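Today's session is about reading a structure prediction critically. Students often jump straight to the picture, but the first step is always the sequence itself: look for stretches that repeat, for charged clusters, for runs of hydrophobic residues. Only then move on to the predicted structure, which in these notes is written as discrete structure tokens rather than atom positions. Here is the chain we will use throughout the hour.
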Amino acid sequence: MTMAEKKIKVTLVKSLIGTKQSHRATVRGLGLRRLNSTSELQDTPSVRGMINKVSYLVKCEG
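Below is the predicted structure for this chain, in token form.
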């Protein structure tokens, strides 16, 4: 199994109210719409970077 085939589950656990516009866009880019919404994404460096940027808003399971 290569790294590209791995999935990573991301859940939005904190509200976007009062956050930076770029962080909201990043959360949207991860496919998260509302609180407690979950998205299953490919485990790629770009996705990792996005998760890293908004790590204080999301929870992720490998």
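Discussion point for the tutorial: Strands lie at 7-12, 38-42, 58-61.
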